[in-house]
Amino acid sequence: MTDSLxxxxxxxQSRLRAACAAAGRADDAxxxxxxxxxxxxxxxxxxxxxxxxxxxxxxxxELQQKCEALADLAVEWHFxxxxxxxxxxxxxxxxxWVHSVDRPKxxxxxxxxxxxxxxxxxxxxxxxxxxxxxxxxxxxxxxxALARAAAAMPRLKLRGLMCIPEPTEDAAKxxxxxxxxxxxxxxxxxxxxxxxxxxxxxxxxxxxxxxxGATLVRVGSAIFGDRHYSx
Length: 231
Fold this sequence. Notes:
Layout: H1 2-22, E1 31-35, H2 41-49, E2 54-57, H3 60-69, E3 76-79, H4 88-94, E4 97-101, H5 104-113, E5 121-126, H6 140-151, E6 156-162, H7 171-190, E7 197-199, H8 206-211, E8 216-219, H9 221-224
Parallel strand pairs: 1-2, 1-8, 2-3, 3-4, 4-5, 5-6, 6-7
Helix pairs in contact: 3-4, 4-5, 6-7
C-alpha cells in the first residue's frame, strides 16, 4: 500500500510544482493538505513517513479517533467539514486549523472552547462562492463582517478564506468562483487583517486554483485513491 501512496503523493507534488511554475509562483507557494476522511489511520502514518504533515478531516468523531490513534506523531490536523455548534469542543481541543467557520456562533464556540495551553486555533471563513443551496459557507456579502468578528475573538487566529466551488467542467466558471475568494481576501487585507491563506482547489481543479492564487489545496482521492463512504 505504501508504494501506491508514495507514487500518488509524488504525482500530486509534481502537479503542484508544475502549477506554481505555470503561474509564475515559487515552488513552495502552495501547501498541500492531504484529505484523509474515510481512510484509515495507517494510511496517514505511511504518508507521514513520506514527509506529509498536514491532514484534513470532515467528521468530528473520525478526527477524534485518528488523533488518538496517531498521538505519537506530530500531525497538523485540519478540520474542513461542516461543523455543528454542539460538536465544536472536540475540534477546538484537537485541531490546529478549522477551514469551515461559516457563522459567528461557530467562531464564538471555538474561541471559548480552545484550551489556553494551546496556541490560538488557525481558522478560515468558508464562503459559498457558487451560491448553491446545498453548500455550506456564508454568502460572499456576509464574509467581510464574519471575518472581522472572528479576527477579534480571543484564542483564534484568522488566517484566510476557504471555498468549495460547484462541480463543473467549465474552467471559466470555476476560475470566476475562485476569483471571488481572492478578491474578498484582498479587500480584507486592504483593511489591515493580513490574511495569508486561500484554501481552495481539490484533486480535479488544483491547477486552476493555483493560477487564481490558492495558497493551500485540499487533495484526497488523487493521493489516497477512490473513497468508499461509510458515513
